[in-house]
Amino acid sequence: MTKVLQEIAVDRSDSIIEKAKKGDDRAFNKLVGLWFKRIYNFCLKYFDDHDLAMEMTQKTFIAMHRHLPGIRDNDRLKHWLYKVARNHCYEEGRRKTRSSWLSIFQNKEAHTQPDPYFHPERKIYSREKEQWVGGLLQRLPEEQRTVVIMKEYENMKFREIAEVLDVSENTVKSRLYYGLKSLRKQIDNSGYNYREEI
Amino acid sequence: MENSANHLDIINYLYDEMSPEEKRKFEEKMAHDSALKEEVEALLETRSLLGQLPDKEVVEPSVKTTSSLIHHNHDSFQWIKPLVSVAAVIVILLVAGYLTRFTLQYNEQGLFISFGANVNHQDRYAEKSEVDQLMKHALANQQVTFQKELAKTSDSLQTLYTLLAQFSQEKNNQRQITHSKAVSEAELKKQIADWQSVNQALLQNYIKTVSQQQQEYMQDVLVQFSDYLQQQRENDLIMIRQNLIDLKDYQDQQKQKTNQTLVSIMKTVNQQK
User: Fold this and answer.
1) Between B165 and B102, where is the model more confident?
2) What is the pTM of this model?
3) In Å, how far is B245's CA from the nearest CA of chain A?
């Protein structure tokens, strides 16, 4: 329900964008509120690291603040935001030198809201599974990972992904196919019992 | 089924991008091609697994978009920085010069710099005879020192030679003693066994110490991590409590507004009557 309301709000954000373009701070804040979660989750799945995801998301919205008046077509804001977020992630990914073991000590759930249906065993298993899936995504090449995240988690159309990445729709489909194949191979080789339920 | 002609069809099928006719044909093809069916099922399962990585809720930071702060401050006062730096350096130099009583003098004899006292440039030149005498004195001193050092070195060498001779004599004696003693094989083995046991004990002790240190370290880390989690949870609870209070305030305000509106409507209705 919340998701549907969010989508409706995004669809009807034209007037908010116009106000934000004119320097209305409240409108800009509303715009950030509409898109923050989506961009954050895109970056989070890209890096599997809360801190980096927050950093990239903030960079994306700083860029939005600077360039918003230059965006002529309001309908293209979504593509523009994903493009900027993806570029930041790509640049960061290239110069990322952090040791992966450090992430053990990072609280990846900081700023996240507590689960009302808390069940310790199920929670641990589900978190383990989430971490496992997140880790599988990390092992994909950057191009395939981006397409998989955009299609599977951001529910973008092939045309939209093609526009954001500046490639043809068939290229997007190819990358998605090879990404899924690669994930399948990793799943089979991992020996992880993902079918087990608690 | 990994040829490039079919993978687009697979993706179109998986993401429901086919017309009903295309879909029917593809399903027919799958029914006859077990490898294709297996691949499609495996990819569907992969998608279902990906679906188990949910979105994380995140609290967006409140953005203060004071454009004047971001743009104008940044651009307009950019030139002040180097000026302030230069001024600060000049002030520091002046203060340092004052504190060290720095003096700079220039006359026909040249440029003179001093700290703490004026330069007495009248005494800076000596007569030639004085210079000759000073040099002779210095050379004589140098010669005496050299002679002393030479004598010392000669004594040291003599001592060293005597020591070497003694050491050589002792070595010869020891060699003769060693040859005279025949070390049995059993004694040798015993000695080796002793060494091995000592080494083993040392190694065990080392491993024990290291494992103890690691345990202590891990306990420390776990305690810190637990504290950190506790702190986070407390912060979250505070935030939630604050939000609930805000929400209640908002609801109260809304209720008040609604009441006011209702009263005004009632008034209007009464007036119309």
Assistant:
1) B165
2) 0.51
3) 17
